[in-house]
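ENTRY TYPE: protein
CONTENTS: sequence, structure tokens:
***
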Amino acid sequence: MAGARVKFLSVVGFSLICLKMVASTKTAPEIPTIDQAYSKISNSITVEWATVPGATSYLLTAKDGNTVVETMVANSPGTVTGLKAATLYQITIRSISPAGRSQASPPKQAKTVLAAPILQVSSPSSDSILVQWEAVYMAIGFSVSIMQANGLGRIWKENTTNTSLTFTSLDSGTLYTIKAYAWNANGTPGDDSTCNQRTSPGTPANIQVSFDSGALKASVSWAPTEGAFNYTVMALSDSSRLSCSTTFSSCIIYSLQCGTKYLISVSASNDAGSSRSTSAVTLKTVACAPGRVAIQEDPPGHLSVAWSNVDLGDYYVAFVKSDDGLEVHCNTSLTQCNFLSECGFTYFISVFAYNKAGQSPLGDVFNYTTAPCCPSDINPVLVSSDRVEIVWSPVRGAELYETKAVDGFNVVECNDTAPACTLSALECDTKYNITVYSFSEVRGSNTSCTSQFITTAPCSPEIKNISKDDFSMINVRWQSTNDEATYTVTAQGENGLHQCSSTGESCILGGLPCGSVFSVTAVAETPAGRSLPSYSVPLETAPCCSASLTVTQVTQSVINVSWTVGTGALTYVTVLQSHTGQSKCHTHQNHCLLGCITCGINYTVAVKAVSATGLTTDCAYQSYSSSACCPLGVKLYRLGPNGIRIHWQASRGSANYSTDLYGSKGIFTCAPSAGLSFCDVTEIPCDVYTVMVSPVAETGLKLTFCPKKIYSVTCSGSTLGMVIYRGKRNVE
């Protein structure tokens, strides 16, 4: 096994030695031969050669003095770049293979072509392009061509020895391609330069200007221009310069001034420049709003509006609008208008100037407030002696009402926002000149309001005296200072009113009821109204008499006088009068007992009513005859078996009598015949009787105040009786 390994190593080593020997036997590639060397571009030379077997690449060398430029290429042809234009170079080539690099080929001279001119192009007008360049080294001439960039149309080509060239008669706003190169003395062309240049646009046409008077702006339009990127509109006036730019075919110029003449022109532009401006179009804007507006109202109801003249104003229109919405206007070429106005309105006034461009902008709006209207329906709703209340309908424009009442040198005023006024502290029975002025804060008082006369109610009379005449009539007298007044006196009591009237200073009240208390007042009345009542004066009439009087005999010497109560009477005085004397009583009751009466005598009865204040009324006079005197010596006698006779002694004077016997078995009565002093009772039973003999009044009334006697009528046997006097007693 070890012997095999040694044998293998020996073989390997032999192989390596053989390979080394083979490598050392390879040589460098052959030297290439340059067929030609030429320059088409000013910074390079192209070399052509025959291919060298085994060569994998080639090294081109260009030498200019001490400057060497090398380029590695893969095969022929090859180009050396980075060279200088119009320069003679020594060109060599080496082939390269893995075995090495060949020797340089024999040199061949080649010269780079001229450099391309550096172009500067511009379009001085819409139909020309100017091409400029700097001198090119070794160049003796230049060739410049131009054509539309889209390939349409013809090609212009010009040769020149100058460094600029202008192409004319071109289409405006069109993009052109310019190509230029230089040539040397041999006529060899150099590099060319290519650039594009657009001609400037043509002048816009068909300029149209539309003016907006409300917004003070102008809309300018035109026909689109070929090749224009942008448009500029200029508006020139003596004092301003306005413009607008756009890519479209219309543009709006804002902020124009009123009353100004503008010259409007349009120019188009692109990257080449601007066109010539169009011929200017004249634009006259609307006139400015008139200034220095003056408003006057003279006389009232006529409104005059004046203003100053303005530039470019052909005529004027003044508008007057009232605050109720009604508007009027006037059209004039002058600087003043007149309008009818009404009181109490606020007018809003504006003036416009007009021309062909339209209406001027709105200037200041003026307001003028006319004087407030005067109240016309002043109505006095209350007129008293010292006060007048007046009302009226509200009027336009009035914020306050000023009421004045003038009486000679005295003035009474009241101010109020309400359409009413109460004038107080006035003089009674006085004529006042009353005026209601309307007032507004803006215009003040309307002093043209008319006045009217109002007379206050008469002064109150003063009652001086109330007297009663012989006929029970009440005479009232008063004092007053009124002129031509009618006076009414009123007596007011519980039972109603009683009045009398007079134009003088007294009147008579009649028919006042008795026993009444009255409050008496006097009132004056004129067409202006009624005065306040005078201070009241109390009046009391005499008390009323009793409606009836009754006299009743109580005893033989006492009578009772009674009566109905009379109105207003507090006490009564009753007097019984005869030739024998007088009986009198004073009482607050409605009856009175009078004693010491003599029987059988004629009396006069009088009653006097007395009020609380001492007023008296003699009320009644009545004749009264006192009753006959009671009989004396009354005795009973038996008449037969069942009857008795009553006998008495008659008093003075003639009288009729009646006899009554009162017993347990009945009452027995008998009356004597005229002129007799006895009477008989038949069929009277045995009993104890009370016997009374009484005079009978003329009225038939039987008096019961005479003395009574008791008798016993006894029986003896069956029919015989005895009359026994038992005594006397007063039995009612």
